[in-house]
Design goal:
The protein has two domains: 45 residues, no CATH class; 210 residues. It contains ten helices and five strands. A hairpin with a 5-residue loop joins β4 and β5.
């Protein structure tokens, strides 16, 4: 907004140029905030996520987490915990209902919040739909592992697009790539070798999936957002444990650990839209 200052010895007023802080518009609600000034230059400002959540989120007149979204998120938690109980007690029939239902509620949450990017929400919802298809394929008695793996691989492509559209730091992204490269070499290589021993045709798809989910985690790290980073890391941990138990060695209670980290990871990616 332009104001006027009175000139000395004159009744005329000269325009007062606003300061940079007044003319700067934030392009991103959380994480690294890209800012454009009057002269068109771009800069990046990183403020504490918790403070941005409080000052720009809950203190706004229209908070990004709407009442409906909060209610749906609470219902998601109830359904997810019910699914974990079903998994822990091997109630297969309940799993067939509850596991896809968790994704339905997460999609509803994503559609009901006020996102920092509408495009990112569209990409994320598509990824959630593909994840639900992957869930159904992997939990059916018939072995549809490759189909489920393919659905999740494409889902991660949409997650990457969503995260990139939220805005990332090049430095953070490079750090994420380096970190995930180390994980892929140390852990992913053994999972691929285990998959090849089980079925040689699985080695290629498993290696491709590890590459894509590693890119997704790196993109999440690049955003600098707490929810995005936490969600992606939990998702990656869930899939790493799933691959390890399927192709290398089974762990006690591995199914429940995989499910808990998976649901929390998906929820984190949804909340990254705030």
């Amino acid at each position: 907004m332009m104001t006027f200052a009175k000139l000395p010895g004159s009744t005329r007023h000269a325009p007062r140029v606003p300061s940079n802080s007044q003319t700067t518009k934030s392009r991103k609600r959380f994480g690294f905030r890209w800012k454009a000034s009057v002269n068109g230059s771009l800069g990046v400002q990183c403020a504490p996520t918790a403070w941005r959540w409080f000052s720009q989120g809950w203190m706004r007149r229209e908070p990004p987490m709407t009442a409906i979204a909060f209610l749906l998120l609470s219902l998601t938690a109830v359904v997810a915990v019910s699914d974990w109980i079903a998994v822990a007690n091997n109630y297969r029939v309940a799993e067939y209902l509850l596991k896809p239902l968790v994704m339905v509620f997460l999609i509803a949450v994503a559609l009901s919040i006020d996102p920092s990017s509408d495009f990112a929400r569209v990409m994320l919802v598509i990824g959630l739909l593909l994840s639900m298809i992957g869930d159904i394929a992997l939990m059916l008695p018939k072995d549809l592992f490759i189909a489920g793996l393919g659905a999740f691989l494409v889902a991660h492509v949409f997650y990457v697009i969503a995260l990139l559209s939220l805005g990332i730091s090049l430095t953070g992204f490079v750090v994420g790539v380096v970190l995930m490269t180390v994980v892929a070499v140390v852990l992913g290589r053994r999972i691929v070798q285990g998959a090849a021993r089980v079925d040689k045709t699985m080695a290629g798809p498993v290696a491709a999936y590890i590459s894509v989910i590693s890119l997704m985690v790196a993109a999440a790290i690049g955003t600098g957002q707490f929810f995005a980073i936490t969600g992606a890391l939990l998702f990656g941990a869930s899939d790493a444990l799933l691959g390890w138990t399927r192709f290398l060695k089974e762990f006690p209670r591995s199914r429940i650990i995989v499910m808990v980290t998976y649901h929390l990871g998906q929820a984190g990616l949804v909340l990254a839209l705030l």
